[in-house]
Amino acid sequence: MTQHYPALLRLFALLLVACGGLWAEKLSAQNEGVSVSYSVEPAVITMHEPIIVHFDVLNKSTHPITMRLGRDRKDGFSFLIRWPDGSTHKRPSTLLREGVSDPGNVSLAPGERLRHQLLLNEWTAFPGPGEYELDVRLVTPIEPSSHQIRSGRGG
User: Fold this and answer.
1) Which end of the chain is more exposed for a tag (fewer CB within 10 A), N or C?
2) Residues of the domain holding 81
3) Is the pLDDT of residue 64 over 90?
4) Are 135 and 57 in contact, with CB atoms under 8 Å apart?
5) Coil vs helix vs strand at 6
6) Residue 99 has pLDDT above 60, yes or no
7) CATH number of residue 136's parent domain
8) Is 2 inside any structural domain?
């Protein structure tokens, strides 16, 4: 059965409870000087508006670090969304595809920062207004590196 929302309600917003559901993965003792954060802006999102997660890493340590963000800098992330009805939805496994892609390996020298955006709408549609909880994680560890793979600047 299709529910019809009044025009005013359609302009009302989807709310992602970003602060509680977004978290920074635990870093090893070797990476204590690395700051990782996730955010969704704005916190209130209008229906059918793109939903973007901001991933921010600052290397405050004295050595370079390496991150494996996955193909095209997005396959290395896991997403879990709790919809307003209480059901949970995971990001499906990505399928291999033809063509060229970026392997997603990024190194940051001491003092460097990576700011990266992930578009949630690429893999899920939000069915209607309500409060959604989002849990996003980088599934691979951030590791010390001895050489520069690819600078994170400008990402």
Assistant:
1) N
2) 11-92+100-144
3) yes
4) no
5) coil
6) yes
7) 2.60.40
8) no
Residue 154 falls inside a structural domain: no
| Residue 152, domain member (yes or no) | no
Q: Is the pLDDT of residue 149 over 50?
A: no
Please state the domain count of the chain.
Answer: 1
Kindly state whether residue 134 falls inside one of the protein's structural domains. Answer: yes
> What percent of the chain lies above the pLDDT cut of 70?
67
Backbone phi and psi for residue 47, each to the nearest 5 degrees, phi listed first: -50, 135
8 A C-beta contact, residue 76 and residue 138: yes
DSSP assignment of 54-82 = EEEEEE-SSS-EEEE--GGGTTTEEEEEE
For residue 38, pLDDT beyond 80? yes
Q: d(Cα 155, Cα 105) in Å, to the nearest integer?
A: 12
Higher-confidence position of 149 and 104: 104
pTM: 0.70
